[in-house]
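Usage

Read records sequentially. Each one opens with the input sequence:
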Amino acid sequence: MTDAPFDPKTMAFKRNGEYIPRVAAVHDLCGYGKCSLGVAIPVLSAAGCDVCPVPTGVFSSHTAFPGWYMHDITEVLPEYLDAWKKIDVQIDAVYSGFLGAPEHVDRIRELYELYPQALRVVDPVMADHGKVYPTYTPELCQAMADLARDADILTPNLTEASIILGCEWPGTDISDEKAIEMVDGLLELGAKSVVLKGIQREGEDIVRNFVGVQGEPIREASNAYLPYMLHGTGDLYCSALMAAVMTGRGLYDAAVFAGDLVHDAMLVSAQQPNFRERGVSFELLLGRVCDLLK
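and closes with the structure output:
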């Protein structure tokens, strides 16, 4: 593990030679539907990272399917992480996403304390389109909002940013000024950098994301809007962004790479049977993640 794992001006990870960085991925495990660990492990592995899963729960499928099953493994996580301590597992980055209980935030904070030099990437997966996900309680939303303050890289959509800021969801049709105000607000709460996702204005065929790093100008990265929603695109976006960061790209360039990869994966997905239900298909594009190592 390096002493100074990232450049605070760009949020780029400082990768040394052939060293393979190790990432603790704190997400759920989903049997069917492209999301969470099912996305993070292959994408980050393609970027030359050693991904160490910390599963927060086991799902039969993503929650858009009726009758999904969830097994909560909260009670085993303390012993799981204690076992890591006993064998001296070293971690260069902690990447968290969907959580199942406020206690999961406690486990993430334990990782932060155990690995104080590790890069902290928080994808605060808890809501979208103005609605909180069905498994999220008010207590869990508050715990996630508190965790967001400690992130080196925070990647909320507009709904999640509103929850963290304690303000009303403004919808997706917001001005540059409002987006910048929200990014500034998240930085003021403590996050060292923010990628605010999903600004989509009425009458436009563009999706805009705003990238802010403390002490640096806020910049916009955009992609063509595709008129369908797929499950797992947020997980793919953050995993691809982190893959680029872990190969030495600055945060803005990483946001551009992630946006392009998600856009193209959605095009690939549309060629698959039952694509709206099965989630985003990224497998054919993993070579582009591997190319980040060149």
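Summary fields computed downstream for this record:
- Residues 19 and 253 are 22 Å apart (CA to CA).
- The chain has a mean pLDDT of 95.
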